[in-house]
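**Protein fold record**
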Amino acid sequence: MSGRFAAEWLSLREPADRRARSARLVAEVRRWSRGRDALNVVDLGAGTGANLRFLAPRLPVPQHWTLIDHDAALLARVHLPDPGPTVRRVCIDLQQWRDVLAKSGPPDLVTAAALLDLAGAAWVDGLVQGCRELGAAALFALSYDGRLHGSPPDPDDRAVRRAVNAHQQRDKGLGPALGPDAAAYAAARFRSAGFHVLTAQSPWDLGNDSEQLAGALIRGWMAAACEQVPADRDRYRAWAQRRERDVGSGRVRLRVGHLDLLALPPVAA
């Protein structure tokens, strides 16, 4: 996906992401951050800055953000809230995210949105270890959890979901992806490292009020399903045509499951 098309997708999904994110976990982060002079925040897979635009205005202290992404074209499109935090943009592979900290200093908070489900177990293990060694909290929002539901259902919804979820576990650049299991895996690893962990559902609820996003999502699912099970591509294409028509008519709503995760570091004795 080119930078331009990736930026268009990120822009399309940003309003749905904002509606879906867990207010309870954001309130917990606010409570945790109160009383601090400032926050040093590292945003992994920052893209065009949607996570910063959502979270920074909701934190009650001055902030410095380091935005890390492998795509310079996306970082170039970052626009900031006004007034906003100070920001540093770093284009680097996410495997090397800790390499940039010598200049910015250790983070108080490591965060990302829509990233964990693209990562493999080894990368998540390294993330947890890094947060533990740095004494940083972690907030990871909107990790896909494998739930795709249409209401009312279509006979082929289940087959598409099965193919999409299998496709989600392909290597996306951070090792064989955990896909729908990512948030649960990360939560277990953070707990084992002594963190206080909270999770909350953050599903998308899409209908003809979100027709453009829903259509793009349906076409993306179809493409993933066709790639995963090429023998059934005609079935998946017919399903996509029906589902786009259903959503556009207002007859169907789609629910896409996500999980938000907050991990607060152990309190020093």
Summary: The two ends are 47 Å apart (CA to CA). The first strand starts at residue 39 and ends at 44. The beta strands are 39-44, 63-69, 86-91, 109-113, 137-151, 196-201, 204-206, 253-264.
